[in-house]
Amino acid sequence: MNITVNGQSRVIDVGDAPTVARVIDALGLRGKRVAVECNGAIVSRSRYDDTVVKEDDRLEVVGAVGGG
Amino acid sequence: MNAPREPVLSTANDDLVIGNRTYRSRLLVGTGKYRDFAQTKAAVDASGAQIVTVAIRRTNIGQDATAESLLDALPPSQYTYLPNSAGCYTADDAVRTLRLARELLDDHRLVKLEVLGDAHSLFPDVRQTLKAAETLVAEGFEVMVYTSDDPIVARELEAIGCVAIMPLASLIGSGMGILNPWNLRLILEQSKVPVLVDAGVGTASDAAIAMELGCAGVLMNTAIALAQDPVRMARAMKLAVEAGREAYLAGRMPRKFYSASPSSPTSGLIS
Question: How far is B90 from chain A (nearest CA, A)?
């Protein structure tokens, strides 16, 4: 499936479960503390498993970094 | 500065009170501009800061999964994270960023709101800041708001419900110290919520002066991170904030142009 993650087009293998959880896994981010937006709406961690991702969806995956 | 200010109500051991939380340290520090995470942690710990600001940015995908992150060096369980909306130039972006921060940190609601108006000076856009503050407060965020030293704006931000007002001393990263102590004093006189100087602190005396004026605390990043010896400067800042606070609570002597009042007796002089 083609989706955009953090502004970059990516092909993600979602198998038979096109969920945010599957995308997070495929990106190697399982267990990392991140926050996710799908098409501008925040997807809370508790809903990763039942939030469906569709072709051409736009995801933002963010984390905390050093800043003032 | 002649009129003494009413003493600030505080806890028995003079803890910093923000919203319904108390903190022993009145020094808050940023985590940016350090050489590496080890130096960040060493400096933060030397400063005694309990509240650390962090920025919210896109995760690097494909990065080595074992690479250390800021959260490994400074676990959120040991420090109070204050996510900021740094880099945002509109209320919408700031609100969006801080909503993500809240989700990131398990519904943690204490945030630093910052909306900039100019990429060169990094001066805050107070109109966008006011707009963002309204939205965030309505959504249950506890907003510590970075702003200019305009006392009317500060008053409006407090009326909106921000839990702390954070006027700049001078431009972000400039190290120029407090350029307008008079505006700061106006803000301090009118505010019922804590006022913390944020931005422009350069060295220890700047922090001490902020506290002597009556600020509840000081937030800084560059002053420590870009010192020749950041860990040493962090220690200096810890002491400066404590010294300034003690001096404020002690109530300074009045300033007079001259007083003909020597400290030694005027009688018993030999002749």
Answer: 16
Indicate yes or no: CB of A63 within 8 angstroms of CB of B81: no
**Tell me, what's the pLDDT at B11?**
65
Q: How far is CA A41 from the centre of its chain?
A: 11
Q: What is the dihedral of CA B66, A24, A68, B164, to 10 degrees?
A: -130
Residue A16 to chain B, least CA–CA distance (Å): 23
Residue A7 has pLDDT above 80, yes or no: yes
What CATH number does residue A35 fall under?
3.10.20.30
ipTM comes to: 0.96
Tell me the residue range of the domain where A30 lies: 2-63
> pTM for the full model?
0.93
Domain contains A36: yes
Q: Which pLDDT score, from 0 to 100, does residue B63 have?
A: 73
| Nearest-10 crossing angle of helices B151-160, B126-138 | 10
For residue A68, pLDDT over 60 is answered with: yes
Report the gap between the CA of B30 and the closest CA in chain A (Å): 4
Q: Which amino acid type is present at position B23?
A: Y
Task: Find all residues with CB under 8 Å of B68, minimum gap 6, and list them.
Answer: B37
| Residues of B labelled as active-site residues | 112
Task: Please report where in the chains the tokens 């051991």 appear, as a residue.
Answer: B13
Count: domains in chain A: 1
Using a 10 angstrom Cβ sphere, with 0-12 exposed, 13-18 middle and 19 or more buried, the burial of residue B30 is buried
Q: Do B100 and A60 touch (CB under 8 A)?
A: yes
Parts of chain B with a pLDDT under 50 = 1-8
Q: Does B59 touch chain A (CB under 8 A)?
A: yes
CB contact B84 to A (< 8 Å): yes
Distance spanning both ends of chain A, measured CA to CA: 38
- Which region among A6-10, A20-24, B64-68, B202-206 has the lowest average model confidence (pLDDT)? B64-68
Indicate yes or no: CB of B58 within 8 angstroms of CB of A27: no
Quick one: average pLDDT of A19-41?
A: 94
Residue A58, domain member (yes or no): yes
